[in-house]
Amino acid sequence: MPKVYHNLVQTSLRLAFFDRVKNCFMPYDVSKYIGFDYFWRVACASQIIVGLNLALSYPLDLIHTRISGDMSRKGTARLFQTTFDCFNKTNLEETRNGLYKGAEIAFASAVGKQMLQLPVYSVVKDFSDKSESKFQRVLGASMLSSTLVSLLIYPLDTLKKTAQTNGGRGFMGNFSSSWDVCTKLPGQLGLMGMYRGAHLYFLSNLVSAFCQF
């Protein structure tokens, strides 16, 4: 359920504020902005929405990670009974800062994804088979570009999840900060360890890309 709440909040915020924020950077007709002028305005609007989304919905992402880890334990009592129980215990035991552990990494991941998604999609679409229908070209390019971008940023997701659980109830506190996670974890896990569980992440992105188009 935390993941459902997280996606609902993100989607609602994006729909409610993106056009308003974009209009602040592009007050005139879109056709008046071309080249780099168009790019930086859209990029700035997108990053503001990313920051707003993280500020308001990130605790739900953290709670989802902790509840998922809690459910994976066999033969032990559940640490958290509900979404609110996890939120309440995290807030009381680790203060508000505990609800935003790893938020810096999540922001870097979101910005990286925003910056790469459209350029990679455009390149993949240009190299696709022109004999295919427009729908097939768009769908194929979307799914392939989503996989490529996920491949590039997945290690950041591993870092984020480690930071989210670090020092929480039922988890070891092996790192002093998010920066400590970023500097030490890659050396501890190695390249393959940083991509653990990547196949499920890729599958999720492929399904999301298919549904969007």
Characterize the structure shown.
Helix content is 77%, strand content 0%. With 213 residues, the chain is mostly helical. The protein has 2 domains: 100 residues, no CATH class; 110 residues, no CATH class. The longest helix is centred in the N-terminal third of the chain and has 37 residues. The relative contact order is 0.10. The mean pLDDT is 78.
Radius of gyration: 19 Å
Q: Strand content of the residues, in percent?
A: under 5%
The residue-averaged pLDDT reads 78
- The shape is globular
Number of helices: 7
Helix content: over 70%
Low-confidence stretches: none
Major β-sheet profile = none
Through-space gap between termini = 25 Å
Gist of the model:
The chain has 213 residues and is mostly helical. The chain has helices at 2-25, 35-71, 83-98, 103-126, 134-165, 178-194, 198-212.
Reconstruct the topology from this structure.
Layout: H1 2-25, H2 35-71, H3 83-98, H4 103-126, H5 134-165, H6 178-194, H7 198-212
Helix pairs in contact: 1-2, 2-4, 4-5, 5-6, 5-7
Which structural traits does this protein have?
single chain; 213 residues; mainly alpha; 2 domains; 77% helix
